[in-house]
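Ticket #4471: structure output looks truncated?

Reporter: J.K.
Steps to reproduce: submitted the chain below (274 residues) through the standard prediction queue, then opened the result file.
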Amino acid sequence: MSAVPTSVQWSKLNEYLLQVTTIHQPHDFCVAALDLLPKLVSYDQGIVYFLDETASVYDEYLVGVSEKAVRAYHLHVFDDPEEESEWSVSAIARQYADRIIADAKEKERLGRVPTNPITSMDFSRYPHDSRFYRECVRPRGIRFSTGFGFFDMRGRVRVVFCLDRTRNVDYSHDELTLLELVAMHLGNTYVNFHAEPPFGHGDTLALATSDLPLTAREREIASLILQGSSAKAVADRLGISRETVYKHVNHIHAKLGVSNQAELIARLRESVGR
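Returned output as attached by the reporter:
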């Protein structure tokens, strides 16, 4: 880790960490981590991406960013195979995981404590004639970007934080060091207390024999959702279209009286005694 800056106000850092770690629902924990972060490090636009076990995005939380801009980003990176490998959230997550593994091995070789490194980008140095810059960066006015991620117990990135600045002020050394501290402490909290154990065969049987008013297909989809699968992953696994998956999920929501994925997962876990 970088040398801890002398300007760090430890009381503010401690207060921030205490506030976030009192939240016991994983999704809300990550939302609070972003919402309360300006107490330590300011940003102009923030996004939290929630990833399934295949590193596909199944949900996001936005601060200062329009849903239209995020949809444009997703459409671009998945529609352009030449840039998808570099700029899709899935690719970023994989690159981030590889970087952390390499960092941990190097720190172990040197006898140092591994950290949860952050990534940064100065877009003034990125090719302005590229499609990605024209369609995704320039419309949002992004000048500088930084971010970090949280892992599950299997070492997969499950949450990605993106912190963007539209003002012409890069993140300082002290701010980046603060973010490393935040990423390390909250990342440890996430993996230890918020990353659920894998949904196993016994849970699948429990869901299949539960008294939930679901069809066999709906139970199958529900079990995959509990494993963290996105609509795309469920569709690929079952050989059906995403539209069909959405249709089944809507039926599941209606039958169980829930209105979003967080409520659905809580209801399903309750049904199998989690």
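Triage note (M.O.): checked the attachment and the full token line is present. The two ends are 37 Å apart (CA to CA).
Status: closed, working as intended.
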